[in-house]
Design brief:
The chain is of the alpha+beta class. It is 14% helix and 16% strand. The protein is built from three helices and six strands. The strands form two sheets. It has a three-stranded antiparallel beta sheet with strand order 1-2-3. It is elongated, with a radius of gyration of 21 Å.
Length: 115
C-alpha cells in the first residue's frame, strides 16, 4: 500500500485510518498539500485550486489587489494556469490568468427601471 502511494507522481502519503486486523483494505493514498484528493486502495487523482494559494504573487492575491474574485474552473494538474479574475457585480468582465478589465453599464446597473 505505502509503495503504491509513494510511487505516484507527485508522491502521495499512505494513511491507514484503522490499523487493526479486523479493518483491512481501508488504506488510502492522500495528496500532499497544496494538492488535494484521496482514494481508497489506489493512487489518488490530485487536484490543485490555484486560487487557494496564499502567496503575494499568487492568483488570489493578484485578483484581490484589483477588488476581483479569483476562480479556478479546472483543478486537475494538467490544467494549471487556467485561473481567472472575475469582476464583482455590478461590474462585468474576466481576465484569463490576469486581472480583469471590468466595465459597468450604468444603464443596466443604475437605471433598471428606465424604459
Amino acid at each position: 500500500a505505502g509503495t503504491t502511494c509513494s510511487a505516484a507522481v507527485p508522491p502521495q502519503r499512505c494513511d491507514d485510518p484503522h490499523p487493526t486486523h479486523d479493518r483491512l483494505h481501508d488504506w488510502t493514498c492522500l495528496c500532499a498539500p497544496p494538492l488535494t484528493g484521496s482514494r481508497v486502495r489506489d493512487i489518488a487523482a490530485c487536484e490543485r485550486d490555484e486560487c487557494a494559494d496564499g502567496c503575494a504573487s499568487c492568483p488570489a492575491a493578484i485578483c484581490a489587489q484589483h477588488q476581483q474574485t479569483c476562480h479556478d474552473p479546472h483543478r486537475a494538474l494538467r490544467d494549471l494556469g487556467d485561473w481567472e479574475c472575475l469582476c464583482v457585480a455590478p461590474k462585468v468582465g474576466s481576465g484569463a490568468a490576469q486581472a480583469a478589465v471590468c466595465s459597468l453599464d450604468e444603464c443596466t446597473a443604475e437605471c433598471g427601471t428606465c424604459a
